[in-house]
Write a structure and sequence with these properties.
Carbamate kinase; 39% helix; two-stranded antiparallel ribbon; alpha/beta; 9 helices
């Protein structure tokens, strides 16, 4: 019996560090290939998949400006790092026969398409994966905010936030063995408690547009598909009851 996805169009948010694997920096081809294989499983279910990838494995703008670099310059460098990751992920996806387009918020036509909302939606409707790179094209905004913004623009059903933990906790589980994991939580509770789901701008944007967020552990193979099929893993961030 064929499993039925609970979402038709999704934004998958990947951190740059997710592409580095245990190395912590740079790009681990085996890790990128695994992510591509998991993404292919979802595409084969008929789900339209768009990806937003960070650049922290190459450059973190926050690190630069905290050391005295001009904030805008540091952030633009981070945007360029996301483009490197996007091309690596595109290569891995096409190696497993997933037709993919990279769209960048900063024009670089020799290597990627400029971001055009209607074109992105058309790619998705044709079954192509779309990777959004270069953030929003503006400094001072994170790739979390990019994921929320693009989700609203393309009318995605959900933002899937892939992390290295099993969900959202009331405190850092790596420091507190008694940290409590939330199965479901509301946007306002995330904001009021300062929980690390997406940054506050991104969370507010999802709340304003009623876009749910699922935070899950990317380190367990097959979790992307499990989330798509509606299995109760990770943490579901919402503004109303999940099955309401």
């Amino acid at each position: 019996m064929k499993a039925n996805p609970v979402y038709n169009r999704v934004i998958l948010k990947l951190s740059g560090e997710a592409l580095a694997g245990e190395k912590g920096v740079g790009i681990d081809p085996s890790v990128v290939h695994d992510i591509a294989e998991q993404t292919k499983e979802v595409v084969n279910l008929g789900v339209e998949v768009a990806v937003v990838v960070g650049g922290g494995n190459i450059w973190r703008g926050a690190s630069g400006w905290s050391e005295g670099m001009d904030r805008a310059t540091a952030d633009y460098m981070g945007m360029l790092a996301t483009c490197i990751n996007a091309l690596a992920l595109q290569d891995a996806l096409e190696a497993v026969d997933v037709v993919t387009r990279v769209q960048t918020a900063i024009e670089m036509r020799e290597v990627a398409e400029p971001y055009i909302r209607r074109r992105a939606i058309r790619h998705l409707e044709k079954g192509r994966a779309v990777i959004f790179a270069a953030g929003t094209g503006n400094p001072y905004f994170s790739t979390d905010t990019t994921a929320a913004l693009r989700a609203a623009e393309i009318e995605a059903d959900v933002v899937l936030k892939a992390t290295n933990t099993s969900g959202v906790y009331d405190s850092d589980p790596s420091c507190n063995p008694d940290a409590k994991k939330y199965d479901e939580i509301q946007y306002l509770d995330v904001l009021n408690r300062g929980l690390m789901v997406l940054d506050s701008t991104a969370t507010s944007l999802c709340m304003d547009n009623d876009i749910p967020i699922v935070v899950f552990d990317l380190g367990i193979r097959g979790n992307i598909k499990r989330v798509i099929l509606g299995e109760d893993i990770g943490t579901y961030v919402r503004g109303r009851e999940k099955n309401e």
